[in-house]
Amino acid sequence: MTTDETADVVVVGGGPAGLAAAIALRGQGVARVVVLEREAQAGGVPRHSAHLGYGMRDMHRIMAGPAYAAAMRTRAEQAGVDIRTATTATDWTGATSLQTVNRHGMSNIHARAVVLATGVRERPRAALLVPGDRGGGVFTTGSLQQLTTIHHGQPGTRAVIVGAQHVSFSAVLTLQHAACRTVAMVTPLTRHQTYAPLRLLTAGRHRVPIITGCTVEAIHGRDHVRAVTLSNGRRIDCDTVVFTGDWIPDHELARRGDIVIDDTHRGPAIDTAFRTNRVGVFAIGNMVHPAETADVCALDGRHAATAVRQWLEHPAWPTTRVRLIAEAPVAWVAPSRLGEPGTAPGGRITLRVDRLTPSRTVAVTQGTTTLWWGRPRGRLVPNRSITIPGAWLVDADPGGADIIVSLQP
């Protein structure tokens, strides 16, 4: 039997972005806020990640992942958020109505607004078309962390990590905590893509070699991994392989709702007020900028709550929106649509590049007008987010040409 119920806002996804949005909505006076979380407990990826590094930007202290997730849950419960775990939104039954399933059966929740915060996942070995035997011992960072932190399992004793971005170095710590030695990190790029302090505290501290300009060409081991062969011909003995990064947003529910998907990062296309093309539906967190740290996603949720509340009070939705176009080697820009003039989430626009480049200057143009030109902090490196100020949005023409974000010599 299917039941029907109502809510002011339904948040799909109980990770840092979703919980932060729900907490902020309750703090702004929204009466009935429901969070749907498909796992047995809310908290998202930090719940699986036992190492330190969470909470600096939003809670202003450094915490381990499970403690951070627990603190988020506690704040949500104290705020009066209705958190429903082991519950999945399976389809849309109206503009802002969702069909949900849990152990009690099916329910239709009719909301005034929906916030999608379903996060991202890593592409596994099969999606990356890595050939070889199909033995056990092959993970993504996410499945590795669930094995070790949630199920207290043992991955192996010698691991090869595929990738050299932020999450790859997080995997080094996860393996170290599980008494599994990382014998190599492999990246097709000519350098790692994380910050020097993180590399030194992880791979540097544990003397992990980073093999650049290489890919894994084959995995050996019929019953269990025994070795990998690299594109340079080198064979490395190991019993564990961890594929890291290469993010894809969990966008299946968005697609079912005919929400426009950005061609570049494959998440919902949103404007600077987190609005999708579907009236009353917002998207936040790593599904719209794959992938940032948990505290950045939490700040996303806080910013989005104001936009959602404003929609509840004054239900106006844009019918046409100027696009923000990423020009190669810029891989993507978030948000990718122009919203309210002069606003941007956290006052910034996020972008990434798809290759190593000597360029250091970013230009933002609309037709013949240069809206912004400058050098972001840090190097422009793939798999690392770059932020630029968003104050120039007030000068953009909401009825004008698309806005181009490019690199200049």
From TrEMBL:
Sorted UniProt keywords: Oxidoreductase
GO molecular function: oxidoreductase activity
Residue stretches making up the FAD/NAD(P)-binding domain: 8-294
InterPro entries given in the database record: FAD/NAD-bd_sf (IPR036188), FAD/NAD-binding_dom (IPR023753), Metab_Enz_Cyan_OpOx_G3PDH (IPR051691)
SUPFAM superfamilies (UniProt xref): FAD/NAD(P)-binding domain
Cited PANTHER family: ANAEROBIC GLYCEROL-3-PHOSPHATE DEHYDROGENASE SUBUNIT B
Protein known as: Unannotated protein
Organism: freshwater metagenome
